[in-house]
Write a structure and sequence with these properties.
Blueprint (H helix, E strand, L loop, with lengths): L1 H13 L3 H78 L6 H10 L10 H9 L7 H36 L6 E3 L2 E3 L6 H6 L1 H40 L1
Keywords: Membrane, Transmembrane, Transmembrane helix
């Protein structure tokens, strides 16, 4: 096409038809500009396609990690609710005149159990390395940041303090038991000196401290579970589009 215009231009110049030559010259310039524009658009489209493919890869990795996290959070949520229920029962037993029986042994055992927090942060670290702005959906991005930068660290801090309170409880209560499981401290038999145990204010206060921290863990697990489901569902919608 360009060669054709050049031949026409040469002929018009030879014939001294300047006005016609000007028209063809303008046409030739427009043709070149259109070619450049099309090349630019094609390159831009290719870059956008590559960028979108990377975004899909990143949020898919995030989603897979969150699905795994959700399993752990759900298990912890239910387990900590069971622990909390028995902590309240032990506190009630310590404060009142109830008898010690097999149910009370189970309650003491459950009231002192622990869980571990085993979420995966590798997908989020990978996303930060590529840049959080790679995620075009602001709702997904903001929820992911809240989960990894707020809720997860907050839970880790509180559960570490929960372990500390459990240690402090053990330091005041172990003398009332002949046997316990050390990982963690789970009391497996009837305590001795029941009347003295009930009078020991330090034991009651340590159970209350432990229970307060656990109530926070239960609430935090509920928040994380809710947010995890929201993000997973939002990513599903984004990928389907």
């Amino acid at each position: 096409m360009i060669k054709f215009f050049r031949k026409i231009r040469q002929r018009l110049l030879t014939e001294n038809k300047f006005s016609k030559y000007l028209i063809y010259a303008i046409g030739e310039i427009l043709l070149v500009m259109i070619g450049i524009l099309l090349a630019f658009q094609a390159n831009q489209w290719k870059e956008q396609k590559t960028e979108k493919e990377l975004e899909i890869k990143l949020i898919t990795e995030i989603q897979n990690g969150l699905k795994s996290d959700l399993i752990d959070v759900k298990v912890n949520h239910e387990y900590h609710k069971e622990i909390l229920k028995n902590q309240y029962k032990v506190i009630d037993w310590l404060k009142n005149d109830g008898q010690f029986n097999d149910s009370t042994t189970y309650q003491f055992s459950m009231a002192t159990k622990r869980t571990s927090f085993m979420v995966s942060k590798a997908p989020f670290e990978s996303l930060k390395e590529f840049g959080l702005n790679r995620i075009s959906n602001d709702a997904i991005k903001h929820k992911i940041i809240r989960l990894y930068d707020v809720l997860y660290p907050q839970y880790e801090n509180v559960i570490s303090m929960y372990y500390v309170q459990d240690e402090k409880l053990f330091n005041v209560i172990y003398k009332y038991f002949d046997d316990w499981n050390m990982s963690p401290y789970v009391y497996e038999n009837k305590p001795k000196n029941l009347s003295q145990l009930k009078k020991d204010h330090a034991v009651l206060m340590r159970f209350k401290y432990l229970t307060n921290y656990n109530a926070f863990l239960v609430a935090s697990n509920a928040k994380m579970e809710k947010l995890l489901i929201e993000i997973i569902d939002l990513i599903d919608l984004e990928l389907n589009e």
